[in-house]
Amino acid sequence: MKILILGSGGREHALAWKVAQSPRCEALYIAPGNAGTNQVGTNVALDHTDFDALHAFISSESIDLVIVGPEQPLVDGVADFLRSKDVAVIGPGKVGAQLEGSKDFSKAFMKRHGIPTAAYASFTTDQQAEALSYIQQHSLPIVVKASGLAAGKGVLICETHAEAATAVKTMLSGEAFGSAGQTVVIEAYLDGIEISIFVLTDGQNYKLLPSAKDYKRIGEGDTGLNTGGMGAVSPVPFADDSFLAVVEDEIVEPTMKGLIADGIDYQGFIFIGLMVVKGKAYVLEYNVRMGDPETEVVIPRIESDLLDLFEGVVKGKLAEKKLDISPKTCTTVMLVSGGYPQAYEKGKRISGLEDIEDAIVFHAGTRLEKGILVTNGGRVLAISCEGETIEHAIHQCLTKASFVDFEGIYYRTDIGKDLLT
Ligand SMILES: Nc1ncnc2c1ncn2[C@@H]1O[C@H](COP(=O)(O)OP(=O)(O)O)[C@@H](O)[C@H]1O
Ligand SMILES: [Mg+2]
Question: Which of 4, 115, 191, 324 yields a CA-CA distance of 20 to 30 A from 27?
């Protein structure tokens, strides 16, 4: 099989790394990729918004399967477009992608299909007065969400009514997030522990992939600004078989049945963000692709041939495929540029990778400049290690991370610590 992966981050390097190991992988392209993906495949400069150019490349290289890493092309309808040209795709069409692209759509989906989620109401620009009065009678804290894609910045947990009112006004006016904020979801605050589960589906059957927990804040102890993710752990110790059986029963199966009932033919990943409150799981959100950096801990634990599973997805035969998962723990620590998630510089020379053994270094924001590896983003490298325990795996990650250097390098040393007791 000849494969094209869309995307350029650590998630895409992890997918490419795994796909390249399949005996059935004849050729692998990543668009646009990074310095790491180019070690396991061939990077190609393709613009995700130019569907015709994507298709021209797919035709000329006889690509058999396209794996879409990020959400934006899915929300833009790349999967429908390619399927209309008889190209097999991992990733939902435009309607299915609304599960992530519109929080209003996904909350209505959950409500319609009896999937546990926080109580909510949604409002559009012309309903500002109703939104403000809804806030006034709401208990604190109040969660205000821009409905559309906002690059992980569209959710505000407001401690006062005044703060929530300001958030709603700036969102509905378009000032805060443009059109993504012109519908808002206002929901009840859930106080619990977060965990993500990942589903791979052919539209009828599904496989539950390993669970993971990610660490969003820049600072130790989960403090400071939100980032794309500073590290991750898989599996999550409290997500044992009995917990997961209940989650499948109350959340995953109703989600699959809901998709089928709504006539949404969904092929690809579903990332389900959960908040566990007193042992009961509620859906915070769906994402229609894998998470980053969760992919960097989930993929290394998959022992089966990923291409074989993907073939099951696109042929509607996932039920016949085997999914073997390593019992080991995998953790990842993200090495980021100084200043991230605010302003940071790029083009810093990266050294020390050649000294790393017994770890997988997934590239996120890197590129080669005249043959020299340099930083090219806020999140630069994800170092993933396996271990018998979280403690062991994290110790490995931190040891390997200490070998790496670039100007301004920063990483958290407390990934997974909260799961130890
Ligand atoms: N109802 C809620 N109660 C408590 N925390 C929430 C709630 N909804 C979201 N959050 C917090 O905000 C984060 C981002 O919200 P989420 O719905 O996942 O949006 P996105 O990932 O698109 O920014 C979550 O990971 C969680 O920490
Ligand atoms: Mg989220």
Answer: 324
Question: Which residue ranges have their beta carbon within 6 Å of ligand 1?
Answer: 118, 143, 152, 154-155, 157, 187, 189-190, 194, 273, 275, 284-285
CATH T-level assignment (fold) for domain 193-320: D-amino Acid Aminotransferase; Chain A, domain 1 (3.30.470)
Mean pLDDT of the chain: 97
Give the dihedral sign, CA 105/111/114/117.
positive
Instruction: Name the residue with the closest Cα to ligand 1, atom 10.
Output: 284
With the CA atoms of 10, 226, 149 and 128 taken in that order, what torsion angle do they form, in degrees rounded to the nearest 10? 180
What is the arithmetic mean of pLDDT over 142-166?
Answer: 94
Question: Which residues make up the environment of ion ligand 2, defined by Cβ < 5 Å?
Answer: 273
Q: Which fold has domain 2-84?
A: Rossmann fold (3.40.50)
Do 27 and 66 form a contact (C-beta atoms < 8 A)? no
Please state which architecture CATH assigns to domain 329-419: Alpha-Beta Complex (3.90)
Q: Let me know if domain 119-188 sits in CATH 1.10.260.40.
A: no
Select from 328, 299, 303 the least CA-distant residue to 387: 328
pLDDT interval class at 151 (50, 70, 90) = confident
pLDDT tens per residue, range 248-282: 999 999 999 999 999 999 999 999 999 999 999 99
Q: Which atom of ligand 1 is nearest to the CA of 154?
A: 23
Which regions of the chain carry the CATH code 3.40.50.20? Answer: 2-84
For 99-109, what is the mean pLDDT? Answer: 98
The per-residue pLDDT for 406 is 98
Rounded-to-integer distance, Cα 61 and Cα 64, Å: 9
